[in-house]
Specification:
alpha/beta, six-stranded mixed β-sheet, single chain, 6 strands
Length: 408
């Protein structure tokens, strides 16, 4: 994905969706690679992403490996653009003095595609460790680079390798490692699940999904800031510890971000009951937009918890009932509140809704679990129940919004 595969050099038939999926695969592989580097080199390991190569691996502050990932079914033949663009990245790094080929352990190309059918193909030769196979691969690459440089499509890639002194060409080829038929997304996920030792052992998939979301956020912040700091194993360990606390018995994970993939309808098109309830009390457009996000967060979280057996069905029922009972108490209190004696029904509804937004979210008794203290979770759950509808803000909500069928 690095400089040699920037948007300006992507062929016109290359799908933007493929590019996005390729980048997501790169990030997932980077997470796996940090685990793998820690097993090989201990705690003092780190990675860079999109700096020299897709992934740069460091141990004890020394660059040990450059990694290029290719999530593709396209077989890497002798003339494949993914192969030669990778060679260009490595050749440029060596020629510019960024990488010392004698000091680095490996130049790794990871592809989900199978091996070429031809045993004498460069990619197949580079998967063998014999001197003869490496020499044959080097010869083929030198000949191709020398003769194909004038090409429009891969000319710069061939030229980059051709421009290296022959000794550095040899040093590069000796250090190339190619992994074909690499794990796909699902396979990578399974490999990472196997590494997770934090949290309950029977919840590793749910733990992994939360980890993937948090990892993507961590990498996004790292790429945005573009500081010199690498992503270290200690940072990953800290992240794993934070997530493990959310999987303790009195807590729940709330950082699941699958909800971000769901589109929120425009206010004018949103005819869900919880939105009608807000219109009935004269809620502002900003309040209704915020309610949409809170509703989505709560429903997606609840679905995630239930699918992954993180909550019991009775636990959800009891939590819902606590919210319903408390809302009923607020309506009873409003009926005896002298300050609301002359208030309109809309004003009473706004009073109840203000309680739901400002006071209820901070009551420990209304949390689904004691340490699951994110206030927006309770706000969203209240909106979900208002959509059912099993509670409401307007004094006559159960007349206005509960049909005879729903009320049975």
């Amino acid at each position: 994905m690095n400089s040699a595969s920037s948007p300006s050099s992507v062929p016109s038939n290359f799908s933007a969706d493929d590019s996005i999926l390729g980048f997501k695969y790169q990030l997932r592989y980077a997470l796996y690679l940090l685990y793998d580097a820690q097993r090989a080199d201990g705690l003092d390991v780190a990675i860079d992403i999109e700096r020299i190569d897709d992934i740069d691996v460091h141990a004890a502050n020394k660059l040990t490996k450059l990694v290029q990932t290719k999530d593709t079914a396209t077989i890497l033949t002798n003339s494949s653009a993914p192969f030669w663009k990778t060679i260009r990245i490595w050749s440029d790094a060596i020629r510019n003095g960024v990488v010392d080929p004698t000091a680095i352990r490996a130049f790794l190309l990871v592809t989900t595609s199978p091996n070429p059918a031809d045993d004498s193909a460069i990619v197949n030769l580079l998967q063998q460790n014999s001197t003869e196979s490496r020499q044959e691969a080097l010869s083929q690459m030198q000949i191709r680079a020398a003769t194909k440089r004038p090409q429009d499509t891969l000319g710069k890639a061939y030229q980059a390798f051709h421009d290296l002194p022959s000794i550095q060409q040899k040093q590069l080829v000796e250090k190339i490692t190619i992994q074909t038929s690499a794990p796909t997304f699902d396979g990578l996920d399974e490999l990472i699940y196997d590494q997770i030792v934090h949290g309950p052992p029977n919840k590793r998939v749910a733990f992994g999904k939360v980890l993937f979301g948090r990892w993507d956020q961590l990498v996004e912040a790292y790429l945005r800031e573009r500081s010199q700091a690498k992503i270290t194993w200690q940072e990953l360990q800290s992240l794993l510890h934070e997530i493990s606390l959310q999987f303790e018995e009195d807590n729940l994970p709330i950082e699941f971000i699958d909800m971000l993939r769901h589109a929120i309808p425009s206010l004018s098109d949103d005819n869900r009951t919880f939105m009608k309830q807000l219109i009935a009390i004269g809620a502002t457009p900003n309040q209704r937009q915020r309610a949409q996000r809170l509703y989505l967060k709560a429903t997606q979280l609840l679905g995630f918890w239930q699918r992954n057996l993180l909550v019991r069905p009775d636990e959800v029922l009891h939590h819902n009932q606590r919210l319903i009972d408390e809302c009923e108490l607020q309506h009873e209190g409003a009926g005896t509140n002298s300050g609301l004696a002359s208030a309109s029904a809309e004003e009473v509804g706004r009073h109840i809704y203000k309680w739901a937004n400002e006071h209820a979210p901070h009551l420990e008794a209304l949390r689904i679990r004691r340490r699951c203290s994110d206030a927006d979770v309770i706000r969203g759950c209240l909106h979900a129940l208002a959509d059912a509808p099993r509670l409401g803000w307007h004094p006559d909500w159960n007349i206005l919004f509960v049909s005879p069928t729903l009320g049975e």
